[in-house]
Input
Amino acid sequence: MNMQAPDNFLSIEELTVEYPLQGGKKVHAVTQFTAHVRKGETLGLVGESGCGKSSAARAVMQLPRPTSGKVSLDGQELTGLRGSALQKARRRFQMIFQDPIASLNPRMTIREIVSAPLEIAGIGTRADRDARVAEMLETVGINAEQAMDRRPHEFSGGQCQRISIARALALQPDLLVCDEAVSALDVSVQAQVLNLLEKLKKDLGLTMLFISHDLAVVKHVSDRVAVMYLGRLCELADAETIYRNPVHPYTRTLLSAVPEPDPDAPPHEMNLVPGELPSPVNPPSGCPFRTRCPRASEICAQEMPELRYAAEGQLVACHHPHLDGK
Amino acid sequence: MGEIILDVRDQKTAFFTARGMAQAVDGVSFTLERGKTLGVVGESGSGKSVLSRSIMRLLPGNAVVPGESKVILNGRDLTRMSEKELRRLRGPEMAIIFQDPMTSLNPVLTIGKQIMEVLTFHMGMKKRDARAKAVDLLKAVGLPQPDVRVDQYPHQLSGGMRQRVAIAIAIACEPDLLIADEPTTALDVTVQAEILDLLQRMVRERNMAMILITHDMGVVAGRCDEVAVMYAGRIVEKAPVRDLFHKTRMPYTAALLSSIPKVTDPPHRKLDAIEGRPPDIINPPPGCPFAPRCKYAEPACDAGKPALEGGARHQWACIKPLGEEVAA
Amino acid sequence: MADVTSSQQRSDTTGKPEIDRNALAIALHKKSRRFGAYFWIPMVWLIIVAIACIFAPFWGLPPADEIDWSYIQSPPVEGHPLGTDNLGRDLLSRIIWGGRVSLTVGFAAPFIGVGLGMILGMIAGYYRGWADEVIGILIDAWLAIPGLVILLLFSVVFGGSIFMVCVSLGLLFIPTAARITRAATLNYAGREFVLAAKAMGASDFRILRKEVFPNIIWPLVAFILIDIPIAIVIEGSLSFLGLSVKAPTPSWGGIIAEGREVLSTMPHIAMYPTIVMFLTVLSFNLVGDAIRRRLADVREGAI
Output
């Protein structure tokens, strides 16, 4: 595949994640997912439940290693690492999770929580680590002096998420994976944390993988966006393009379903063939979206469409993309 | 113009907690007409869910409601009724749909049995008639293969389907008032659109009144006739939906609208985040609860809680409301 | 700069008329959060028993196996506050020394059982897979063997030292402790903070020690509190049957057994140790319940 970006800082190739079930069946969470992210870029990953975006994120983090496929960060192949080599490499990529309070050990103090990565990496003395913890907490907007010796239950969701961010950035990673990082937060707090993430990304030169089901949020933080359905990549393009001119029928459906905070906006036309989301244990043959796609035809059932360029910088996997513009 | 189904007067609900009294709802009043949908928007801690439970009189043991609060449904005061009388009303006159259909449906009973339960208890139907009606209701809410699904268990259905079942149960006895408490928050966005379409259709076809509670301004914009914005247990702005978005008066509403990312925005726009956090309802600040976070606040704002003022259609609780036109 | 909410601050709510309607409910709610009489009265008894037994050598009691020929089978008289048994040994002394056995077994057996069970449970719950299967089969097999048979076997094979009694009783507690630990470990091991620790490159041992262990300890504490009185009762039954510590070491069950023979003529021999044992077990149960209730409240507040 001929990618425009010369430097693939984060390279995900043919990522496949399958979970075994009883009776020999498998859950096909992610199938042959390929994407490349430039250094300092944010790739947004959207889709509805069961699309595999969280599984893909965890596979990138090697938590656990994907069933097959390759993930490389800055040239180093992560999927091939084992044991202490992997442990050492982990300093370069970190993750923020959806549930801010469950992300922190309720029995530990904030100081212990944020210094844990430093401790594990064996960096610095106790005093050095404390200083770094204080520095990180202040960077994310938490008053270090007041917070250090308290426990997570004394903080709000937004503050807990900030603490998670402080912990994730303590070792100055290159890659930050955000798995629905703002989905559990109140609307007004969401904006604060999103602004914080944007600022930190710029200040620290982070590369980000941002997973969310909320299209508006994803558009906000991403440079490029990948749309997933039932474990497969449907469309990958830069943020503005994918929202203004989506080409894959599923992307169009998704966008038309988003309720806009404007009472004068025309009512949506979703155009979905009525039916249920197929099970990831038994995905449809060929293109997984064909069972609900208004443009499906015979070839869609026979052959999985290849990822091709629909326009410059816009990749789509569809036999009948909306190339006509609207 | 229409018949007033619900009249809530000065609803105050407090909870006794280890740290003191938490005033979850602090003096909410509104009326609702038949055929209309009222959207109640707020973040967590705004009191919107407690309000819905206060109207349905489904409060836990440590809740305290003073005597002045009244909830008048179809002309009858619910606060004066016994639990036995209320049980007779829940179903035929008022019904509620909750956020998580997995926990609001009984996992060990078939869907059919759960719908039939409501029909036999309230309408005295025989089992055979109730079952036929159950299948009809499932068809009405758009559940595919209703005659097969009626004998299935909740875990065999997807989230969207379960919520349809919850709606079927709610409308089974043709209530006048339907409260939907975050009905689509746990659902995918495509399913959300379908469920909201269904709710709107039900309200129209059965001429009900609906209270739609949500934190999502997008949902409110497209689905409600009137919107009430709640903050710290009080209604801080109430207006017809277009006026709320285009003639916003309360700074909180405006701040909320400009802090949410929208699909129509360009990427990486810096969001106008509201600083600070929602107030502690156990120890609220004196004066306007939004004052500590409001960029227009002045010393007068801390003096006392502003009362709702304005016209018959559009009211706001602010001593310095915003001007006529605010870019939404 | 975000500030931090303070915990545990009571606000001033006196004088509001709306609250009176539910004053009863509020008062009851408050009451359940303090340690009341149901805690302190049994606690006092336990402290008395503990001090009496721990400092047994210092009370100047006649030795437990010393026979006083002048007062055989005697009800309480001077020099023998609780009388003597059918061999003329001072009952109070025997009960106090017997208490040492009961308390030792009562504490040691649950701790041994929970200690070993906890390790098995953590391994099963954290690693899952075949470790979980193997340990599960072990536990099921263990539970299938009647406890009495095991205790009999141990007593016969290993003799009657107090150490053996503690170990054999402790073994009986392992399966349940393992199951409790496994369930608690499953609950916490799936949470994001454990995943976050893995993402940081923490070793499994570190995760089990620092992330999982501090969280699963609470249900185990509750379990230990339930087990202490159970262990005392089992030990009492064992010594009644002569399967616990061997004579002449006194034990409550043993004294009761001796008193059984002369129950019609000298009921005091069986009665006093029975009363003491009953009060002690009841007290442990009451204190344990109060602590468990408090723990549940605390944990809810913390999470």
Q: What stands out?
A: Chain C touches chain A through 26 residues (CB under 8 Å).
